[in-house]
Specification:
This protein is an all-alpha fold and 1020 residues long. It contains 54 helices and two strands. It is found in: Cytoplasm; Nucleus.
């Protein structure tokens, strides 16, 4: 092995011939076994006499080899030898200085992997090497040192439990980087900007989770803060900037400025304001008093430059807006900001809100891209417009008496001045004012808003803009209809709004059409609007489909879903045609999104749009529940897309496509031949790569068993595959115990729905579940959750109910009968749901139905305990029913409250304002977080740490149709007459109170029989 021969191999990896590339890969695998192999690879990477393409190929290989082989213990993979590792650690940092940027990226990634695995314990030389590089007077050495430092900080910035290595670096290395940045700040070179940017980025990364004491003290804070402000205020003459705005945004000094702003903003917002985390309150007090005012004044100076026509990058504008927002709440900064509010409203916020020539150009050249930027909230998340909007809302919300009416008067003056704009500049200004009122819409509609009663007439006065000669004003009025959807409009006004919106939907401009669709969605709350568009719903849906095909975004799918929900009857004749069009659109989008070398952003948009379309299809399926013939047609129509997504394993769409399959089976309460043809695909998908999607797959799998039991019971292959899924769930390390609950529930479903046909699986089911009951502790999870243990109990209880003699025989075989019943009866209070108690009761009653002589001896010895268990279960059953009914009644109220909280301000919420200029302290976050936590728990049907199972309100089983009181009466009367010994042992120890309770159970059974007879005689 020598450098030249190995170089030739790496050069051959660039060949277009796949056979040559395969031979090279095999040759490299042989070389991997040799000592010093990686040393030679690194030498090739650093050699200037080797072709650049070959060096780059070697660098990529080097990175991948380190990623797979540095810390590999697999016997199937050759790890990197210790000698090679030591050579790499001694030479890789120096190698960074010998390679161009394209290769340097691969080496820094390699260093990251080595640091992750070896530092600090196995790479003690790293920090001394860094110190030497950062102490040098040569730029190249400094830059390489900063690159490596960046990798250390990237690794440790979010490791909250491993802070000490990072603290040591911050204490000893940061002073060196500070000196480097200070020296660079006094020059104007692009190299200086680059290293400052990187140093500030490192500082920012290290303060994401916490702010170390060594950075809080004045000896560190003052020089760093001074440096940040120096870069913030550094003059960059416009004449040195590129002409194109896109290139200006990327200019190195503006990137350095961006990170200076980010560092200052982060220190203030997270650690230095009165609303900071409790552990930083003392630091915040000093920072707010001594540092924040200086920063704010500096930012105001930069804003003044903007007003005077100087360039400021979009990122920096965004960060300035964010800082202003934070300065509204603290008293000290508010007193500085307050005199500037009028000017900032007029010269900072308002210009950012206005439509402009740049947007006009994008609209004309690429209307689809304009729609994406305008209507995609994530695309706007880090824009100057978003931060200015947040600043505006915070001003009006938290400093209302000083800002609310003056800002509204400013907005109104702009609108009145430009009521009927005749030129573009006037239209731009009106658009900005309307944008501002839209942003403040929630606040103007609050209970004690002084303008709440005027907003209806204000909106009506803007209706002329539905026909404006400026298309962007049509977009804006449509947007205002959406913003003011909580404004209660009378029938006349809502119809006028609809007329304007429908007029915009006919406009030839794509952004106007999209805005009108979103406005229509808001108007659908009015019955008068529903009545108006009902007869035209087919035409409207066709227009929506046409637009959907133009933009390939999910913007319109919420409207489509809403219309399907509201107009199910009117759409029924078009349902198949609608789903055909949705299917074809979907297949086109998915195909374009998954093609090789697809543009990442465009593919992401198409996948998101595909999710939206699938949700619309799901809504159509559920809406057709009462039309079985239509559902049958839809199954055939939609099968190609179901098959395509599962066969091609498009993971991002699993959730939605599985929901559609679930909808078909749930609505029809049967599994058709078409849907059965998806079972093998789902099985293969699960076994190949979708174990993590068991939660999404479970409803479908359960429906195959419960609603398709006739086919499932007759098909051994289906049964075997379902068992393989269950076994994988219960045994794989890829799932935790809360996900294994789905395995238990599938076993239960098989035993409840496949009576008498799955005897061969009963021992397997008991084996899979009983080990968790016996060893309720996991190496990774600790004590297993009670909810999971209960479902494991219920697998065995179901087995007893399914076939008591077979199950008892196996329990005896594994010597587990006595242990199981003792544990079961000892945990009865944990069986809290209606389903739990019903299952326990029917299983115990099934045992009573067996001839006593067939009962295993261990169970005979404790036979009386069965009666005590039954009494316990019947005594607590009414309470469980009551709790379930309460949950059903509360569910809708809970969802309404959750939605209202997520949607933000309630229109009935009153302003609560602090007196004078005092600090504004946020205090409403804890309730929100608590509700989110409960909602997240609800997603799984479990609360907190899944300690207990909660009622599953929509979960149906054959047990639902069993009247446990009548069943108890039938069996108890039977054994009293036919199994005297069993009956005697069950009742001999009952006290009078227990006997009276059993008589009450019998009386309830009599009443239930009468009710059943009446129901049969008078069916609903």
């Amino acid at each position: 092995m020598d450098k030249n021969s190995l170089s030739q191999l790496f050069n051959a990896t660039l060949s277009q011939d796949q056979n040559i590339r395969m031979k090279v890969e095999l040759a490299l695998k042989d070389y991997e076994k040799q000592e010093n192999f990686m040393n030679v690879v690194l030498t090739i990477i650093c050699s200037e006499d080797v072709d650049m393409g070959t060096r780059h190929a070697a660098a990529i290989y080097f990175k991948n080899r380190i990623r797979k082989g540095w810390n590999n213990n697999s016997t199937n993979f050759i790890g990197i030898s210790e000698n090679d590792k030591e050579f790499i650690k001694l030479n890789i940092i120096e190698a960074l200085s010998k390679v161009p940027q394209v290769i340097r990226t691969q080496l820094t990634s390699s260093i990251n992997i080595v640091i992750c695995n070896d530092w600090p314990e196995k790479w003690p030389q790293l920090v001394p090497s860094l110190t030497a590089l950062l102490s040098s007077t040569e730029y190249q050495h400094n830059y390489i040192g900063v690159l490596v430092l960046n990798e250390i900080v990237r690794i440790y910035q979010f490791k909250k439990d491993e802070r000490e290595p990072l603290i040591q670096v911050v204490e000893h290395i940061y002073p060196l980087t500070l000196k480097i940045a200070q020296n660079a700040a006094n020059t104007d070179t692009l190299e200086a900007a680059e290293i400052i940017k990187l140093i500030f980025k490192i500082y920012s990364s290290s303060i994401q989770c916490d702010f170390f004491p060594c950075l809080q003290n004045e000896a560190s804070l003052v020089p760093w803060g001074t440096l940040f402000l120096q870069i913030v205020e550094k003059d960059i003459p416009d004449e040195v900037l590129p002409q194109m705005k896109e290139e200006r945004e990327k200019y190195q000094w503006w990137k350095a400025k961006k990170w200076a702003y980010k560092c200052l903003n982060r220190i203030f917002s997270r650690y230095g304001s009165p609303n900071s985390l409790k552990e930083y309150r003392q630091f915040a007090e000093g920072f707010t008093q001594n540092f924040a005012p200086i920063i704010l004044k500096s930012y105001l100076k930069q804003t003044e430059l903007l007003v005077n026509g100087r360039f400021i990058s979009s990122w920096v504008l965004h960060l300035i807006g964010d800082f202003y927002t934070e300065c509204v709440k603290p008293k000290v900064t508010w007193q500085i900001l307050k005199p500037q509010v009028e000017a900032l409203t007029k010269y900072f916020i308002f210009p950012l809100m206005c439509f402009n020539a740049e947007e006009q150009e994008l609209w004309e050249e690429d209307p689809v891209e304009y729609v994406r930027k305008r209507f995609d909230p994530m695309d706007d998340f880090k824009s100057p417009v978003a931060s200015a909007a947040a600043f505006l809302v915070t001003l009006v919300k938290d400093r209302r008496s000083r800002t609310f009416m003056p800002i509204l008067e400013f907005i109104n003056s702009i609108i009145e001045t430009n009521k009927q704009p005749q030129d573009m500049n006037a239209a731009y200004q009106k658009d900005g004012a309307l944008a501002m009122i839209g942003i403040l819409s929630d606040l103007t509609l609050r209970k004690n808003s002084p303008v709440k009663d005027q907003m209806g007439s204000f909106l009506i006065n803007l209706f002329d803009d539905f026909n404006s000669q400026f298309p962007f004003l049509r977009v804006r009025i449509c947007e205002l209809i959406t913003k003011f959807e909580d404004l209660e409009l009378n029938d006349e006004v809502s119809k006028l709004s609809l007329q304007g919106v429908m007029n915009c939907m006919q406009n030839e401009e794509l952004p106007v059409k999209i805005a009108s669709c979103l406005a229509l969605s808001s108007l659908l709350q009015y019955e008068s609007v529903q009545a108006e568009i009902g007869p035209h719903i087919g035409v409207i849906m066709q227009e929506l489909l046409k637009l959907l095909n133009e933009i390939d975004m999910d913007t319109l799918t919420p409207l489509m879903n809403r219309m399907v929900e509201l107009f199910a009857d009117q759409l029924a004749p078009y349902a198949t045609q609608l789903c055909e069009q949705l299917r074809d659109t979907l297949l086109r989008m998915i195909g374009e999104a998954t093609v090789e070398n697809a543009d990442e952003d465009a593919a992401g948009n198409k996948i998101m749009a595909s999710m939206g379309i699938l949700k619309t299809i799901s809504t159509v399926v559920l809406a057709m529940e009462a039309s079985p013939n239509i559902l049958a047609q839809l199954e055939v129509t939609l099968y190609p897309v179901i098959h395509y997504i599962l066969e091609k394993q498009i993971i991002d769409l699993y959730d939605d496509i599985l929901e559609i399959i679930d909808g078909f089976t749930y609505c029809q309460k049967k599994v058709s031949e078409v849907i059965w043809s998806t079972f093998d695909l789902i099985y293969k998908t699960f076994m190949d790569d979708a174990i993590d999607y068991i939660r999404e797959m479970f409803p479908c799998l359960d429906n195959f068993i419960s609603f398709g039991s006739d086919v499932f019971n007759a098909n051994k292959d289906y049964q075997n595959k379902m068992f393989e899924i269950i076994k994988t769930i219960m045994e794989t390390d890829a799932l935790d115990s809360t996900e294994r609950i789905y395995g238990c529930q599938l076993m239960e479903s098989m035993m409840l729905n496949c009576r008498g046909v799955i005897d061969n699986y009963i021992p397997e089911f008991i084996t899979l579940s009983h080990k968790y009951i016996e060893t309720p502790v996991d190496e990774d999870e600790g004590s297993l959750p009670a909810g999971f243990i209960i479902t494991c109990f219920e697998v065995i209880i179901n087995a007893i109910y399914y076939n008591p003699l077979l199950s008892l025989s196996f329990l005896e075989h594994i010597n587990y009968t006595s242990t199981f019943f003792t544990k079961w009866f000892g945990a009865l209070d944990k069986f809290k749901r209606v389903h739990d108690k019903k299952l326990c009761i029917v299983a115990l009653l099934t045992l009573l139905d067996i001839p006593f002589e067939n009962i295993p001896k261990p169970l005979q010895d404790g036979w009386s305990q069965i009666m005590f268990a039954l009494i316990n279960l019947f005594q607590t059953y009414p309470k469980a029913v009551e709790e379930r009914k309460k949950l059903e009644d509360d569910e809708e109220n809970y969802e309404d409250a959750y939605e209202k909280l997520l949607n933000g301000d309630d229109e009935n919420e009153e302003y609560v304002e602090v007196e004078g200029d005092e600090n504004v302290i946020d205090g409403d976050g804890e309730d929100y977080l608590q509700l989110l936590a409960e909602a997240a728990a609800n997603e799984f049907g479990l609360y907190d740490t899944f300690e207990e199972l909660e009622e599953e309100l929509y979960f149906q089983t054959p047990l639902d149709n069993i009247d446990i009181y009548i069943k108890f009466q039938d069996i108890f009367q039977f054994i009293s007459q036919n199994q005297v010994q069993s009956y005697g042992l069950l009742t001999q120890s009952l006290n009078p109170e227990q006997q009276a309770f059993l008589n009450n159970v019998m009386e309830i059974a009599n009443q239930n029989r009468i009710q059943q007879s009446q129901n049969m005689a008078n069916p609903q």
